[in-house]
Amino acid sequence: MFPPQRGAHKWLKALRAFDGAQAGGNHREIATQVFGARILCEDRNGRSDFRRARVERSIKFARRMVMVATSNSSARGDTFAILLDLTKDMLGKALGIRTAVLVGGGIELVGVGLGVLGPYMLKVLVDVLTAGNASAITLVAYVGLFVVTWAGANILSTWRMVYSTRVIDSLSERYAAEVIRQSLPAAATARDADSGYTLGLVERLPYSLLVVIDGLIWRTVPLLLQVLGSLCVVIGLIPIHYSAILVAVFAGYVATTWIGANHHQARSMTANTAAGAVSQTAGDILRNARRVVLNGALEAEVVNIGHRFQERAAANAQMMGSLSLMALYQYGLVGTGLLALMGLGALDVMAHRMTVGDFVLLQGYAFRLVGPLSGLGFILSQAGLSIACIRDVKRLMQRLEPEVAPTEEPEGAAEITLTSVSFSYGPGLAGLTEITAHVSPGQFVVIVGPNGSGKSTLAQVIAGLLPPSSGSVRIGGQDVGRIRRSDRHRHILYVPQFIGFFNRSLAANALYPPTTQTEASLAQLLAEWHFYEPGRTVDFAAEVGEQGERLSGGQIQKLELARIAGVKSAAVILDESTSALDPISEAAVIARLRQQFGSRTTLILISHREHMAELADQVWFMKTGRLVGQGTHEILMRDSLTYQSLWRTQSA
Ligand SMILES: Nc1ncnc2c1ncn2[C@@H]1O[C@H](COP(=O)(O)OP(=O)(O)OP(=O)(O)O)[C@@H](O)[C@H]1O
């Protein structure tokens, strides 16, 4: 699909060495694409530098490109499929923009008619002038008609943009909404979610749609109509070989564009990927501003983003190179055609085989054709990138999950049953092995174990965020994977380890659905948990800042737990949600939650604290992805030396 390029084998070797089996059979494409995008780490002397960090960064970039490259059988086929898809969306009933498309199309059609009529009016004027027998009124009328056709065509073309803009805005809104609807659940599940890339796509979407719809679709069709209309007029008026030349020039233009576009589109996809990498890196750096600045890494990150821009510039340069080559062929051909057309015409006028009016008509149509064609050059340069962006957006819009029927409301606390549950993050990566456990309704379970032992992974498998590779998880007797995602929080609600707050008010975060808390009940709970020092009331209107950065770590957890206390769910899993609380606050919060949940909610807590294990109805002890101990804290302390040593190392 992508011809191997010079030096690609070096990348192939390096990527194999560093990437192992990760990228499946795609190394050759990766190497080729990495080379194609000129992101190889060459030092100033031109020698390849495969230093690990840079190669790893490139692998991430390359993987995305391989995803792009391998998911399509051909760039050209892809382009037409996307154009067809867009046209279907515009003309379909679902988006409600058909009327705008049709009205805009109608206006454009009238504009095209005027565009064809313009040169004809000029020819008639020149014919009348050369005949020399027309009255002043007739001449003024012909001049007026010519001006009206010329001005009218341009006014209509601008007016039509009112409708195309409406269409583009509607499509942008619908596509962006669908991308968010479809990609958020995946982002919530994947622990390596790439939100910066998705954000970049959504941001570039309106411009991409503008280029493709307004520039390409809405300009190409009128251009074709204009060519056909002009040919009809020319055939009827002047010798047939002029029409033949016009047809040949246009066909040549289309053919060179067709061939060039295939190559250009492949380069554009690489450029789109490079643009996405800029968004992803910039987003990542901005989100981690504190980490960057506090570690004195500002300059290093500026250099890092500079590299992303350089990669993008290199990809753009390749794209523009292919476009320039295409333009050379296109306009070499069009220029030759014009030379033949005008040269022959001039000779025919000199030999009185053609009137000056016909010559004017000929040049009028020739330049009417060439004008939009040159406009298309710019559009094509942008269209490749834009099509690649829309294609990625369309892929994100695809429904990944089958529709699941609504599930019945759970009654009371959930019974949780795990039968031989295994999970893997991928070949050779950590996961879970053969976990079997049972939680009775309303119990309080604490999961403990060393860092990286699989506690969060297990919690996410139980909550249905990660699908087990074998075995089953049943919540209240139902397979968790079969509970509709939008209903799942009523059966089991997972509170992640890193609580991300919206950059909104305290109330907006603390009363975020599905809590049933009110400001009053929340204020009472927060006062009880000493959210602020005594005497200070909770300001619900206060903005919490990005990720809640204006609150302390303990306050964030208290606020989140106060919200959770008002949630009606059959089971709740708290993933280290009390880790920032002091032991007294932690005990008070857990006691209150258990009292609040009563017998309606089963509670699972992941914790590194022994006193939490002491409070639990049962403790699950995890080690290297296995459940190596189950029972009360006392029993485990009595029976398991490894469990004892877990707490001994902690207190040492
Ligand atoms: N998306 C992922 N891809 C690959 N490996 C992952 C992914 N997420 C987690 N892991 C790995 O799975 C293992 C278990 O991680 P997990 O977060 O479940 O541990 P944990 O017991 O909760 O750790 P901690 O106590 O530090 O929070 C770790 O080795 C981790 O690196």
Automatic annotation (TrEMBL):
Superkingdom of origin: Bacteria
One Pfam family from the record: ABC_tran
Domain ABC transmembrane type-1: residue ranges: 109-385
UniProt keyword list: ATP-binding, Membrane, Nucleotide-binding, Transmembrane, Transmembrane helix
Gene3D superfamilies found in the cross-reference section: ABC transporter type 1, transmembrane domain, P-loop containing nucleotide triphosphate hydrolases
InterPro entries: AAA+_ATPase, ABC1_TM_dom, ABC1_TM_sf, ABC_transporter-like_ATP-bd, ABC_transporter-like_CS, P-loop_NTPase, RovC-like_DNA-bd, Type_1_exporter
Keyword Amino-acid biosynthesis appears in the UniProt entry: no
Transmembrane regions listed in the UniProt entry: 100-122, 134-156, 216-238, 244-261, 328-347, 367-390
Originating organism: Asticcacaulis benevestitus DSM 16100 = ATCC BAA-896
Keyword Nucleotide-binding belongs to the record: yes
One GO cellular component, as annotated: plasma membrane
Gene Ontology MF term list: ABC-type transporter activity; ATP binding; ATP hydrolysis activity
Primary location group: membrane
Protein name: ABC transporter ATP-binding protein
Membrane topology qualifier: Multi-pass membrane protein
Domain ABC transporter: residue ranges: 416-649
Location of the protein in the cell: Cell membrane
PANTHER family the record matches: ATP-BINDING CASSETTE SUB-FAMILY B, ATP-BINDING CASSETTE SUB-FAMILY B MEMBER 6
